[in-house]
Amino acid sequence: MSRDEIRQLVDTLGGILAILRAADPGDKLEVYRELGLKLTYNHDDHMVVAETNPLPRVGVLPVSGGGCDHYAHALRAEKLLVIDG
User: Fold this and answer.
1) Cβ contacts of residue 33 below 8 Å, gap of 6+?
2) pTM, 2 dp
3) Which residue did the predictor score with more confidence, 77 or 1?
4) At 40, phi and psi to the nearest 5?
5) What are 51's strand-pairing partners?
6) Distance CA 74, CA 85 (A)
7) Are 46 and 40 in contact (CB under 8 A)?
8) Domain definitions of the chain by residue range
9) How confident is the model over 10-66, as pLDDT tens digits?
């Protein structure tokens, strides 16, 4: 996925990043646990690799009207996302 596709996905999902930034740490922990989030830091490259292995119900998006259902595949795919920062 390109950066634009990822940004569109996040916007479509209602700004989940803003919600997570403002969330209680315990709530964040539960969201990350449900997503099966694993972060691995590579000291040589100074890069963090984020992987998810969500529970099956996370990959099911009941959407009507052509919403974000076409992004459901992204929740099951392994992607390496490098963000320069």
Assistant:
1) none
2) 0.47
3) 1
4) -125, 120
5) 38
6) 23
7) no
8) 3-75
9) 777 777 777 888 899 999 898 888 888 899 999 999 999 988 887 776 555 555 555
